Amino acid sequence: MSSPSLNEEKVIDGEEKEVEIHTWKGPNDPDNPFNWSITYRWILTVTVCFISILTGLPAGSYGAGNNYMAARFNVQNEPFPNLYWATCSWNVGAALFPLVFVPLTENTGRMPGYFAAYIVFELFLFGSAFADNFATVVVTRFFGGGASSVSINIVGGTRSLPMSLFGFTSVAGIALGPFVGSAIVQIHEPTRGLEAPWRWIYYIQIIYNAALIPIFYLILKETRGDVILTKRAKKLRQDTGRTIYAAPELNRASVASLLKISFMRPTKMLLTEPVVTFFTLWISFAWGILFLFFSSVVQTFGTNYGFTTFQTGLVQLAITAGAAIGTFINPIQDWLYVRTASKNTERPGKPIPEGRLYTSIPGSILFTGGLFMYGWSSRPDIHWIVPTIGVCIVGVGIYSIYMGVVNYLTDAYEKYAASALSAASLGRNSFGAFLPLASFSLFNNLGYGWAGSLLGFIGAALSIVPVVLVLKGPGIRRSSPFMLEAMYDEEAD
Length: 493
Hints:
This protein has helices at about 40-60, 65-75, 85-100, 105-110, 110-130, 135-155, 165-175, 175-185, 195-220, 225-240, 245-250, 255-270, 275-305, 310-315, 315-340, 360-375, 385-415, 415-435, 440-445, 450-460, 465-480, 480-485; strands at about 5-10, 15-20, 245. The chain is mainly α and about 500 residues long. The protein has a three-stranded mixed β-sheet. It is globular and about 80 Å long. This is MFS multidrug transporter-like protein.
């Protein structure tokens, strides 16, 4: 069966030619990602969520080797956490790399970009493992963090991925890092040389990531419809000699223009769109707390309860537990969101974007309450389970905020959702890079209770953001040029 096509006059290689436009072979074309089987979609879902966890683990696992690295590289880690510069560089790379490299996948497709990023991610884990000085660790983690972020940003666009599950793995992958790292350093080997426990944090991750690459290659396939059509059209041109092109080939933007959009539009939205600005602050602070816990939990539980590195790693599993609780609650949010369709007077039958924020409001309040609880209960005369519960509650809040921001920006900005999310990601990873640098001094100088309270007060102030959107959202959207321009044409839908 030949593919349906239309004849059009187009300029090809400087000449106007009649070309055949290659399209899908009807509504049931098996190559169309929308027609893939439910079974494969679930296999794809599980695979990419697993990848999300794997690429997040190195961000948090690094710190478990701090004591060994401080001695090996003669780095002073108190009162200023100098060893944290390697996690800072990881997040800086994660903030910047997607702006440069993700747009390139518009032309090449997700899968080539994904595997290239994943291999680079693996290579720089290797570089960190065999580093002879701390500067090498900082530099290799910058590139490793950037590659991991590119990889997961590409995978994040894969079709059929349930956002709630992806949100969980985005938080859990990072939060699981301290536990994984602390478990690995229990290996009793010489503290120096290539057998040092901190190096095994990388060795083990290198081994399982490398072993999984061929498995991922067999499971994953291209999900961008325009790239699939382009490849088919190229093959038809080679086989038949006819001027057959896919529509995306004829209207494709240049790499330079894609990069310009990737940098300029998110920056403009971050500076001129109050919704993007305040949502970025909201998610950025929550993400900063996620990384701040990597050092503060070690500090508070080590001082107050005499916990070892492995025990503090176990405590940080509470963040993952909180994210899991948020994931189980999320179907309620989806149900509330769908019910708003009957109340939408602007676009009847379509749920309103503010419906995405209903559970993130109590989630943000829980986030604030968890910070207060963690700070004031971190005392030797209070059982360690109490501040651990506070950490878990914060985990629920981080997940709720993450989901609220991602889903609202996607719904409210539609055509420009990718740019809005890029702006939020830039701020999120920047806070994750630099906020934890203040952790030791903050908790040491203010005391655990007041340090937790200061963070809680900031969280409480930012909790106003979703409340304002729920109450004033329609008016704010009508006054935003970006939101008005971003709406898809209902008739075209």
